[in-house]
Amino acid sequence: MSMAGNLRRVTSLGGVGGLRKVARLARRRPRVDLSHHARSPLGSSVVNCVTYRDGERVPVGKDLVDTVEQVRKQRDGFVWLGLHEPTDQEFAGIAELFDLHPLAVEDAVEAHQRPKLERYGETLFAVFKTVCYVEHEKLTATSEVVDTGEIMVFVGEDFVITVRHGRHGSLGPLREELEASPQQLAKGPAAVLHAIADHVVDDYLSVTDSVQGDIDQVETDVFAENGARADPGRIYQMKRELLELKRAVVPLARPIEDLATRPIRVVDPEIQAYFRDVFDHLMRAKEQIASFDELLNSILQAHLAQVTVAQNEDMRKITAWAAVIAVPTMVCGVYGMNFDHMPELHWRFGYPLVIGVISVSCLVLYRGFRRNGWL
Which of 16, 49, 295, 361 has the fewest CB atoms below 10 angstroms from its CB? Predict the structure, then answer.
């Protein structure tokens, strides 16, 4: 039986002998010293470990095992353990202590997962894609616009484990906001899951607003006077970055809908009402991304049409000048054949006459093309 299973059995019995047995089991595994990262078997992957009771932070035990024992012995409160990019070895002890499913553990360590929600017994496993807008002075064909990361969340009756991957998406400010609202935090681990989902979706809306500014700039440049000379690589780059954002937002719709509508044991019905609000915000972000995609397609088509029109105008100008040049080329070609018996060849005014005919013909053609907009 796993460590978590032993803890459940002992807390249900509530006997002193059972607690001693737990202590013996705990001594068999390396204990996680939460007081100092350098002395912790988890190394620098441990971001924070906090225990909450009735929405208020309470002191943790000497180590993680002792903290979990206290929470499960008193049958109230929960532990929130935060990790950042842990390795297999760093996460193994935690997975055994909280009885986490091996498949969920593998997903949490490896990352690069699709947003999803899975249930393993009494534990929920949720994957969120975090996004961050990358500031840039000018949008180019190689500009990075959206940076993504991941947050994996394990939710049980008395614990929340968050595993973060990426350079952004820190949950420290979110933890402070929750602690400032103890009545919400008192609703249990599901309240933390809702806060994380709400935080992630709010970031989606913030990023889409910033992306809209870049799309507006691209649209302005394309429909400017020299829009045909605009770099189409910027449009393709925006579409690639928008695809990255779409991969984060769209697959999350089904998990959030399940959290908002389907009965789940670890999610209080009162919390589900909050998930419905998150779902509405997510649908707004999803619709904005879909409209951005359609708008970029229209901008790209308009740019290609502008390039085609510009090419046609250039071809008309080339054709018109070729027609003008054809007249002197033809006349000079005829009189350059060096025959003795040619009309006006030995006439005194032959050369001025030919030059006059060429000049008048070229002028007439030029005025005609100019009047029709070819030149």
Answer: 16
